[in-house]
Model the fold of this input.
Amino acid sequence: MNVKNHAMQYEIVTLPKKTVVGLCARTSNQAPDMSDKIGGLWRSLFEEGVYAAIPNKSTQTTLGLYSDYAGDEKDAYDVTVGCEVALAEQLPQGAICKTIPAGNYAKFIIHGDPVNAVMQFWMKLWELPLDRAFTADFEEYLPNDKDDGTCEIHIYISLK
Done:
């Protein structure tokens, strides 16, 4: 089912359980260092070779996962940056394993600069009347073959 609301189009999809391996930190949207913390995770993932060292990748995409919410978007949550794996074994040093539960998700597709487009998306999402589950929301960054620094990003929001 496709839905258009406040100029943000999405479709309701049912996803199977997914396993993610990557780097994790706890933060909140009100934390003054939230952007630095998330940006630091992404830098560490690639600059310290963690992404390259993750075995059993099941796709060529990278993920930004938001999970273990203390409540809703105003409360603390875990952010994990990494990738989906077929089997979580021999984790690189400092990496953790998280599960994206099977269930219904609102799937959004955005295009643009990975930092600015995603930030703008979340600000608009918080205004939508979605029946969010706050179990696991994630951004899926598709491989980029463009030279302009933009990419296609699929964002999945867990629903009740």
Q: What stands out?
A: The chain has a mean pLDDT of 92. The chain has one domain: 2-158. The domain at 2-158 is CATH 3.20.80.10 (Multidrug-efflux Transporter 1 Regulator Bmrr; Chain A). The radius of gyration is 15 Å.
